[in-house]
Amino acid sequence: MSNFYNQTRAASSLMRRLKRSLINPTAVTRPRCFTTAEGHRPTLVHKRSLDILHDPWFNKGTAFSMTERDRLDLRGLLPPNVMSSEQQIERFMVDLKRLEVQARDGPSDPNALAKWRILNRLHDRNETMYYKVLIANIEEYAPIVYTPTVGLVCQNYSGLFRRPRGMYFSAEDRGEMMSMVYNWPADQVDMIVVTDGSRILGLGDLGVQGIGIAIGKLDLYVAAAGINPQRVRYSFSYLVSFASENDYDRVLPVMIDVGTNNEKLLKTPCKKGDHTILSTDLGLQQHRLDGDEYIAVIDEFMEAVFTRWPNVIVQFEDFQSKWAFKLLQRYRNTHRMFNDDVQGTAGVAIAGLLGAVRAQGRPMIDFPKQKIVVAGAGSAGIGVVNAARKTMARMLGNTELAFDSAKSQFWVVDANGLITDERENIDPDALPFARNTNEAGRQGLREGSSLVEVVRQVRPDVLLGLSGVGGLFSKEVLEALKGSTSAKPAIFAMSNPTKNAECTPEEAFSIVGDNIIFASGSPFRDVDLGNGQIGHSNQGNNMYLFPGIGLGTLLSGSRIISDGMLQAAAERLAAYMTEDEVLKGMIFPPISKIRDITKEVAAAVVEEAVEEDLAEGYRDIDARELQKICQNEEEVLEYVENSMWSPEYPILVYKRD
Ligand SMILES: NC(=O)c1ccc[n+]([C@@H]2O[C@H](COP(=O)([O-])OP(=O)(O)OC[C@H]3O[C@@H](n4cnc5c(N)ncnc54)[C@H](O)[C@@H]3O)[C@@H](O)[C@H]2O)c1
Ligand SMILES: O=C(O)C[C@H](O)C(=O)O
Ligand SMILES: [Mg+2]
Q1: 521 lines ligand 1 (CB under 6 A)
Q2: Nearest C-alpha to atom 23 of ligand 1 is from which residue?
Q3: What's the mean pLDDT in 153-159?
Q4: From the CB of 373, is ligand 1 less than 6 Å away?
Q5: Where are the beta strands (DSSP E) in 106-207?
Q6: How many alpha carbons lie under 13 Å from residue 470 in its C-beta half-sphere?
Q7: Whole-number pLDDT of residue 91
Q8: How much is the ipTM here?
Q9: Residue nearest to ligand 2 atom 8, measured at CA
Q10: Superfamily assignment of 61-233+240-319 in CATH?
């Protein structure tokens, strides 16, 4: 009886659906199917682009073939490696099974990766709520969406990948970029963070997985700088803003995949039962392009994004040093761009170095007397010494002589030891800081002297690490720093993530003594020194600058990001800390204040852009209006604050097209 009942119900349901489909063919709940000559049965879809990827019924993720990607405007919205469904499942299963092991990022937070997954799912489901949670709990969750956990996320990104975020421009897309950039459905993009994955934090070449760092940096652009990520179309009406399904995120993470030289990510076949499955990595399975071929890809990308969004700002992130400086020189005078690792880091380090001078109870003007040993001569280390040298020269009167003499305050040590003018094949970017061999000899040093020898002989005021080598400031090196001529030496262990820090604050305070200044790139807890005393562990990370540099540039409408704008940003950060705080060893603010700091930094950038006559205005504030605003510091701050987006649910009303 019940069987008969079920059959009758199924038959009448089928009749109802057929009848409906005869009257209105689009009303069938399942898509209509046809059989082609080859026997495939295509399915008609009435969606394209991201709408397909966000539809669980149609989405195939990385299994969309290249022809399908072109047919459906998906090119660039997925990582470039087209996978079979077996590869997809294998990738998923490997990730699922290693969850336990990979969830650990050292003893500090065994649940960091699990927290990232939960937050990421919230980001996919409800952006407003995601950013509300992030802003309200920034101290707790910045270390999850950003450094250090973002490093672990990048290392595992191929496994963690679920819903794509951002765009992928690959070497295979040469000749297509100008058209594929239109696959991103937003008519306005304010901020792009782009990486080629070649040097992610201190973790090396992570290939396509590096997109995680661009996503993390943009989270801070939204949370700290209040760059509006949402799909709002500004309308002619003061009463209503039109939101449209076709307007997507105005912050865009980008991965330029030119291959990888990380062999682990290249065609590592894995065995599955009797058959072998090719790499489960999401990236191009080839070695990195180099030379002119590489530059041609980056040029094509820049042309494409600036053609579609002429007002966009592009932040270059985690490019290996070999390209970081060259690309910066190539575009910085013609495009709204900057390199965070070179310029953002330099600004943060300058603010920290000036803070360290103040913390010694000396006036900032004494900065040119500081002896600074820098371990690491990559994009970050060289960026810092260049900027510090310029700052010293300015303090000494900005003459050529001052600029020339300032370089003698730095000793740069890389993987091959102290850099001197005897170094063969010296990197041209490091050349100005190569020590004169004779003079080094008089100090008891030579080409290639070890870090410990340099610290012992120079007795520096500051020991700064941007080497990416965890533990480089060994017991021996820190013991040597006890001989510093400074009453309060500064130790900056700036490499990321946590395990790549040159030393921990516990090591620094316990070996060098209580009377030091300590800063690190990734967050560490303060150290209990006993007797109610606290050893402050400052976080010296470019996160205190890049959001303000981007926001200030956007709000000023400057066509380029000048040295002066970057310098103004660094100086504002340096001035943020009070005398009292600095004397207690707090040279950087807590991250809970990041929104306020970013406002200040952005205001300084706007003021400088106006001062240099670079500001062209933003939206309905033109250059002249900006000039007026900039006559009063309070007004600039108000202008910036009022332009910062805060996550609030809008009231939604349905409107027929
Ligand atoms: N705190 C921050 O805001 C911040 C900003 C940017 C970069 N960083 C960190 O700085 C590190 C380096 O970045 P990069 O772009 O300059 O990398 P890079 O690979 O270009 O440079 C690393 C440099 O360290 C040198 N080095 C390697 N081993 C060494 C050793 N044993 N002793 C001395 N020097 C050694 C290398 O020779 C090279 O010059 C990374 O860990 C990155 O996370 C931190
Ligand atoms: O990403 C960070 O935390 C800082 C910096 O940009 C880095 O490359 O380490
Ligand atoms: Mg970086």
Answers
A1: yes
A2: 376
A3: 92
A4: no
A5: 167-170, 191-195
A6: 9
A7: 81
A8: 0.99
A9: 201
A10: Malic enzyme, N-terminal domain (3.40.50.10380)
